[in-house]
Each structure stands twice: as C-alpha cells, then as structure tokens.
Design a protein that fits this description.
The structure is a single chain. By secondary structure, this protein is α/β, with parallel strands linked by helices. It has two domains: 62 residues, no CATH class; 224 residues, Rossmann fold, CATH 3.40.50. It starts with a helix and ends with a helix.
Length: 298
C-alpha cells in the first residue's frame, strides 16, 4: 500500500512538472502584444505608415518609413526585441531614428509578428522573425530600389539581424545591440530568470517541449553560426556588462571571432538595452560614426 501511495505521489509530481513546463513554454511564445502608442511625429519626423508581407507567407506586418532629412546615404531596417514593438522604448529607438534621419539615413521600423499592430499570435524568438525582416528588405527593394541597406537590431531583433545578414548579400552593415549568440544556450542559461522556476527539472523539459508544441526549434537560431556568412561585412556590437537579461559575454563571443571587422562597445552599469538611454550622445556618435564608415564608401 505504501509503495502504491508513493508511486501515485510521484506520478502526480511528474505530471504537474510536465504540465507547468508546457504552460510556461506556451506563454513564452504567446506573450501579450504591446500596443503602439508613440509616433515619429512626436519627434518632428516626417513618416508614412506602411504594411508588407513577411517573406514567403501570408502574415501582414505594419510599420513606419521615415525618410532621411538630408540626402540619403542608406536605408536602415530596425528590429525590436522581445516584449516590445517597433517603438523599442527601452532603447529609445525613435530618438535614435531622429538622430540618424538628420544625418542621412532613412529608417524602416516595423512590428515583428505577434507584436504591435502586426498579424500573428506567436513569437518564434528569431526563427520566423528572420522572414519578417526579410519582408522589410523586400519592401525597400520594391519602393526604394536604389537604396543601400543596413540593419539595426535590439536584443531578439539584433540576433535576427545577424541571421538575415547571413542570407542577404545586400545588407552592408549591422548594428547589434545586446544580441544572444545561440538561442538554445541562451534559454538554458536564462530560462529560470524569466520563469522564476528552478532550472532543474523545468528548463530542460521546457526546451524539449517547445519544438513539439510550436515547431520552434531553438537549435535553428544560432547567430554564432550566421556570423560566418556575415563576415567580412562590418558589425558593431553594443552590450552592457550589467545586462542580466542577456549576458554581455554573448556579444563578446560574437565580436571576438572577427575583430578586424566586428567592433564591440561594452557599456557599464545599465540594464538590458538601456545604453542609449544612459549614454545618448556617445551612443549616437558611435553608431553614426560606424555607419558612416560604410555608407561614405561608394
């Protein structure tokens, strides 16, 4: 009788752990969308609202196109992070867009699938967001066929930008603020921080169930592999040594592979994506100088 009772208790515990892991994994990929509340008009920028299809499927994405105030050097596609939208308020993306627009850069800001005003109910942490950013590039090719192309990404959007650049030879330069280097390694490292659950047994079970529940295989999201095809194009990595959401060693690792073309600016004492908030003037100067080092070469 005691053995049966113990087995029943163990069964309940195992089933509970499995159900909790499935629920948490589902929530990870289906977070609530943050509404778009700001506007380029609030920064005295001219813009137009645009929509386009994610490459290869029927998802409609929405965003803004902000033309350069001066003669255009290049068009930049911005990619936001997880739990954000095109505004990427943590990085003050619209403030950065204003600085760039006044220095010869046009900006395309959009919502990845499942965020802001774009269609879709699920985020895939870079796997299908790659197609979304490629759809933005397709929009530029159709509407600005003579425009040169660069990418500026934040967090998940930075990782996505590296994945896209590996496949799109038209991308000339990338700014990657706080990317992860490998999605599976990153989730294994940080899942318990987000979920507040013990790493064991929950993290391995969540990672195991993600592909089964959603088709999202973290093994397919590996910027550390993508950079082999990005090189020898230039990449500026930006990351705070106090970032707890994505540890700065991810950017350190990525940038260390090709130091002749990959620059790394490590900031200090600020949270995830807050480098621009805290060091606005220096951030803008570094980004502009880096972009100009490519855009001014014709």
């Amino acid at each position: 009788m005691i053995i049966i009772t113990v087995m029943l208790i163990l069964s309940v515990v195992v089933i509970s752990i499995l159900l909790i892991s499935i629920f948490v994994g589902w929530k990870l990929l289906h977070p609530p969308a943050r509404p778009v509340e700001d506007s380029p008009a609030n920064y005295s920028l001219q813009y137009k609202s645009i929509s386009f299809k994610s490459r290869g499927n029927d998802i409609t994405l929405h965003g803004w196109y902000i033309p350069s105030v001066k003669e255009e050097k290049m068009s930049l596609v911005f990619g936001h992070g997880y739990l954000a939208n095109r505004e990427e308020h943590r990085a003050q993306a619209l403030k950065l867009a204003k600085a760039l627009a006044h220095n010869g850069y046009s900006i395309l800001m959009f919502d990845f699938r499942g965020w802001g005003e774009s269609e879709g109910k699920m985020t895939t942490l870079g796997l299908h967001e790659k197609k979304d950013m490629q759809g933005a590039i397709d929009w530029l090719k159709e509407n600005k066929p003579n425009s040169r192309v660069g990418l500026v990404g934040f967090s998940m959007g930075a990782a996505t930008a590296l994945l896209v650049a590996a496949e799109e030879s038209c991308v000339e330069v990338i700014v990657a603020d706080s990317p992860f280097s490998d999605l599976k390694a990153y989730l294994s490292e940080n899942m318990s921080y987000f979920t507040k659950l013990p790493k064991y047994p929950f993290t391995p079970i969540i990672l195991m169930t993600l592909p089964l529940l959603s088709g999202v295989n973290p093994n397919l999201v590996r910027p550390i592999e993508a950079i082999k095809k990005v090189y020898p194009r230039k990449v500026l990595f930006i990351h705070s040594d106090s970032d707890r959401t994505i540890f700065y060693r991810h950017s350190e690792l990525l940038s260390s592979h090709y130091p002749d073309k990959f620059d790394f600016w490590k900031t200090s004492g600020v949270l995830h994506l807050r480098s621009h908030q805290t060091f606005s003037a220096e951030y803008q100067e570094k980004v502009l100088s880096f972009l100009d080092s490519v855009a001014d070469v014709k």
